[in-house]
Specification:
The complex is a heterodimer of chains A (about 600) and B (about 375). Chain A has about 600 residues and is of the alpha+beta class. Chain A contains 22 helices and 13 strands. Chains A and B meet through helix 4, helix 8, helix 15, helix 16 and strand 5 of A and strand 9, helix 12 and strand 14 of B.
């Protein structure tokens, strides 16, 4: 299968963005001046990682892409020695990330890697629970280090203690050093992110693969159902909201929570209500760390703020649950029912397996998939939510110093700079501060940032081709298969998706069957979690993607449709837990559907029909 | 009730009284229908004249002796003589009235059946149910007759005799002679069953016919009688249902040009054009698909193997009690093909993961 030549795609520069390459690391560019690299890029298959990056990437946010470029690749290629694959290569065009799994081509080399892989991966699979417990300790220590990291401001005169303690270091030096520490903690956190993930996905992929061999027509959601109902951290933030809602009712404070959508107003009136209000606030403070670090987005981007940053969001969740409780509706997830159904489904499929050997293999792979499942889910809370939410705010502290010294005009401008540019600008600020002169950046960065804002806007309007380069015959990299769903079918869909021009003529969208069932109802398009408050009872939620902080929305809706995500995505998992239909990864539901349209969501076949 | 012959066997019985052990009494077809009812599956109601009833008829009427006389000196290689003998036996059977007792029994059952269906003089199918039909190597398939859309007790009695006489076609006589079965040992049962007045009908497999997936039930459906689906005259609607969860996992709604309906006067079904506005309408509701698949699952469970099933949705009866199974037999294609094992030689999860990684995913 042939896709456009990446260099041709890149050559069609969007007018007004000439020179955009400097917004991203130089090694992310498709090149024309290096014949060998150019040929490699032509012969390689690159697909747009729209799963993680539905929009053009801000220069600073490239940090997590670089972090996983390194971490995923090293674990595959240098640590576990996955026999047929190396890492995953990366490029950027117009702010969109293209990735490509790199195979090991020499059969002898693959053979040589096999015993190492068996020993190394085997060690992890065998000692999974014990190693995972160690991982949690490492990860929590890293987050504590991040939380303790101080971003100093630059005083006109250093404290006397610097002299009396003969400390020998200035705040300027600490600003530079702590910025480096901040970045390094981020990179380290992503080292841990992939310690278990490659193997976790592999176990999951090959359980899926085996079950699909036994039952070629089995919907993927039924395979994931067999590993569902295991307690994962992702539910905890939502569970805390439910507990807080119950406590509010117990304390007779329920009317306070429905009096205003503004947290500040509610908080003030709780404080007035001294004793009971204080009791409730104390309960809240106990759970804000870590649970309210849950991000309102995927956590991958600076604009994904946490509940702690936007208390109106958890407040609206609490108000929803109070309303449900007042109506006498249960707000508990039907966990017992979910587990009973999981066990029934698993046993029935198992009963349909004809051969004893196959049944034994099924049992082994299922057990492994269930062992790895909690990690595959829980790492998201630790890294993308907890760590990232704290990290973005530390970066805002850095930006505040830069703003104070005039190299940027607004804190949120900082994301338009690469992290190495920020380092340079900090050197500029610190040396100018030390010297008592004006930083050069004062005239450089605001102008550059203004131009970059225009470029970002043009990038957002650009439609990135789903795949470029030359498709290989064989894909062996487990992430590429499970996470991005690169298959013959998806490639075919990708080449056809470009052809749709008139969005208002579309009456049917196809996605992944995320959670079974069929319902009809009115659509509510929520582009961000802040819009969830507009949801009415029994509407169908249409969202770019969802994350744990969207959880309260699921108590109101009767189905969910997303642009991005597979059957293991948050929306699919939560809908299965609630027993409502979901169609995920439709590509462009939020563009095609508008609020108020009548939809028919078939979560068993993955089809959304739109009544026009 | 005097419905019992001297040896203690009933002359007539309801289908729900039949079991798989009843083959000598009611033949293969009726016993398998009884077995389905026993499995909790809804089949069109009906009754059977048993082999005891058949023997009583033959003995009381003196036909047995007449037949022996005709067949004794018959040379089966003489085709002309064979056909002559067959014709005269069959004419004799069809002309011979049942005893009053048998007539009363049949008429009473038929009346009760009509009451059960809520239709005066319910249209029925009258078909022979041979005792030897399903024996390996003794296939009589298609050699007995089926009469559809029969109404009224006299008509039912008449067609029962025609079914009985079908045991004496030339081909059947010579077949038995060649195989060494004696004609006196042969017995036939006749089933009388409500005609399914199909709103929609078709076939269902409790295994995926293409890939042998045992977790799938596929249903092909069209409006009217199942003939259009079985014969392949139309592209039917196609549904795939998950056997474990009963979700509809795939559906194709086809353009259905024709369907079969009944001409009650001439007692035949015929093809008619489906009105244009109905052609692209789904021929079964989702609830019906789910209920049908549930029945398929019960049938498979009962027989312990994948099944090939004919079914019908009846327009005379209300939703919830209108889906009928007309026939169920073991699926044969995949039963013989024995699916290949999926697990490689190794069974540890690690080995499987490694093998899978090395194999990769083929893209074309």
């Amino acid at each position: 299968m042939k896709f456009p030549d990446p260099h041709d795609v890149k050559a069609k520069t969007i007018p007004g963005t000439e020179g955009w390459e400097r917004m991203y690391p130089y090694h992310y560019q498709f090149v024309s001046d290096d014949p060998v690299r150019n040929q490699y890029e032509k012969d390689t298959f690159w697909f747009n990682d729209a799963l993680h990056y539905p929009e053009a990437l801000y220069p600073f946010d490239t940090i997590w892409d670089e972090a996983w470029y390194l971490a995923l690749s090293q674990y595959n290629n240098r640590i576990f020695m996955v026999p047929p694959v190396r890492g995953v290569d990366h490029r950027i065009i117009n702010g969109y990330v293209y990735i490509s799994p790199v195979p090991v081509k020499d059969p002898d080399e693959i053979g040589r890697r096999v015993p190492h892989f068996m020993e190394r991966a085997g060690h992890y699979y065998k000692n999974w629970d014990e190693l995972e417990a160690k991982w949690k300790i490492k990860m929590e220590a890293t987050i504590r280090e991040l939380e303790a990291l101080r971003i100093p401001t630059l005083p006109d005169m250093e404290s006397l203690s610097v002299v009396n303690d003969a400390c020998g270091e200035s705040q300027g030096y600490h600003l530079l050093k702590n910025y480096d520490d901040l970045i390094n903690l981020g990179i380290k956190c992503w080292q841990y992110h992939f310690e278990f993930l490659n193997l976790g996905y592999a176990a999951y992929v090959f359980f899926l693969d085996f079950v699909q061999k036994l039952f070629p027509s089995i919907p993927t959601q039924r395979v994931t159902q067999m590993v569902s109902g295991i307690d994962v951290m992702m539910y905890q933030p939502d569970d805390e909201l439910k507990r807080l809602a119950k406590l509010a009712i117990e304390l007779g404070l329920d009317s306070t929570f429905t009096s205003s959508p503004e947290w500040e107003v509610v908080e003030a009136s709780l404080k007035k209500n001294t004793k009971r209000g204080d009791e409730w606030l104390a309960a809240l403070n106990k759970v804000r760390q870590p649970w309210f670090n849950v991000s309102t987005g995927t956590g991958w981007f600076h604009h994904d703020r946490s509940w702690n940053d936007q208390m109106n969001i958890p407040l609206s969740g609490i108000a929803t649950y109070i309303g449900k409780l007042q109506q006498g509706v249960s707000i508990e997830r039907p966990t017992e029912k979910v587990r009973a159904e999981r066990d029934r489904v698993t046993a029935e499929y198992r009963g349909l397996i004809e051969r004893d050997e196959d049944r034994k293999q099924f049992d082994e792979l299922l057990a492994t998939a269930r062992t790895v499942f909690p990690y595959v889910e829980n790492h998201l809370f630790y890294v993308e939510h907890w760590f990232h939410s704290v990290f973005w705010n530390k970066m805002r502290e850095v930006a505040a110093v830069m703003k104070d010294h005039g190299v940027i005009e607004d804190i949120e401008d900082v994301w338009l700079l690469r992290r190495d540019e920020i380092k340079q600008a900090l050197w500029d600020v610190v040396t100018a501060w030390a010297t008592g002169v004006t930083p050069r950046g004062v005239t450089v960065w605001p102008k550059e940032i203004g131009w970059r804002k225009g470029v970002m806007q043009k990038f957002k309007e650009w439609s990135a081709p789903p795949a470029i380069g030359t498709a290989p015959e064989l894909i062996q990299e487990p992430f590429t298969i499970v996470l991005w769903g690169v298959t013959n079918k998806s490639l075919a869909d990708w080449s056809s998706v470009q052809e749709v021009k008139d969005l208002s003529s579309i009456v049917e969208l196809k996605g992944f069957a995320g959670s079974a069932g069929i319902v009809e109802g009115r659509a509510r398009v929520c582009r961000t979690v802040a819009e969830v408050s507009e949801l009415q009872e029994d509407e169908i939620l249409v969202a770019p993607t969802t994350s744990p902080s969207w959880a309260p929305a699921f108590a109101k809706i009767k189905a969910c449709v997303t642009d991005v995500g597979g059957v293991m995505s948050h929306a699919a998992i939560v809908c299965r837990e609630y027993g409502m239909p979901a169609v995920v990864g439709t590509g462009h539901a939020t563009k095609v559907i508008s609020s108020g349209m009548m939809l028919r969501v078939d979560g068993s076949t993955g089809v959304v029909s739109i009544e026009r | 009730m005097a419905a019992v012959a001297s040896e203690g066997q009933p002359l007539i019985c309801w289908l729900e009284e039949c079991r798989k052990e009843s083959v000598p009494l009611v033949g293969g077809k009726c016993s398998s229908l009884g077995e389905l009812i026993h499995a909790g599956v809804r089949v069109p109601p009906g009754f059977a004249l048993t082999t005891a009833g058949y023997r009583a008829f033959m003995a009381e009427s003196g036909l047995e002796r007449e037949m022996q006389f005709l067949l004794q000196k018959l040379d089966c290689r003489d085709l002309e003589a064979l056909e002559r003998a067959s014709a005269s036996i069959r004419a004799a059977i069809e002309a011979q009235p049942f005893s009053e007792q048998l007539e009363d029994l049949v008429a009473e059952r038929y009346r009760q059946l009509s009451v059960r269906c809520g239709i005066p003089a319910a249209p029925v199918a009258v078909r022979s149910s041979a005792t030897a039909e399903d024996l390996p190597g003794a296939s009589f398939a298609g050699q007995q007759d089926t009469f559809l859309w029969i109404r009224g007790a006299d008509e039912v009695l008449h067609h029962m005799r025609r079914c009985i006489s079908s045991l004496y076609t030339g081909r059947a006589i010579s077949y038995r002679a060649n195989r060494g079965y004696s004609d006196e040992q042969m017995a036939i049962s006749v089933g009388v069953q409500k005609m399914a007045n199909s709103y929609a009908a078709g076939v269902m497999f409790t295994i995926h016919p293409i890939n042998g997936d045992r977790s799938v039930i596929v249903i092909d459906s069209n409006f009217g009688f199942g003939e259009s689906v079985v014969s392949g005259e139309v592209t039917p609607d196609h549904f795939a249902v998950n056997k474990v969860t009963l979700d509809i996992i795939d559906r194709t709604i086809s353009q259905k040009e024709i369907c079969y309906t009944v001409d009650l006067k001439n007692q035949v079904s015929y093809a008619m054009e489906v009105p244009i506005e109905r052609r692209n309408i789904q021929s079964l509701t989702d609830d019906e698909i789910t209920e049908l698949a549930w029945m398929g699952k019960q049938i498979e469970k009962h027989y312990g193997r994948p099944m090939d099933i004919e079914w019908s949705v009846d327009k005379d009866l209300p939703a919830g009690s209108n889906i009928f199974i007309l026939q169920a037999r073991p699926e044969t294609v995949w039963a013989e093909k024995k699916t290949p094992r999926c697990a490689p030689v190794e069974t540890s999860a690690m080995d499987y993961i490694l093998a899978g990684m090395l194999a990769g995913r083929k893209l074309s």
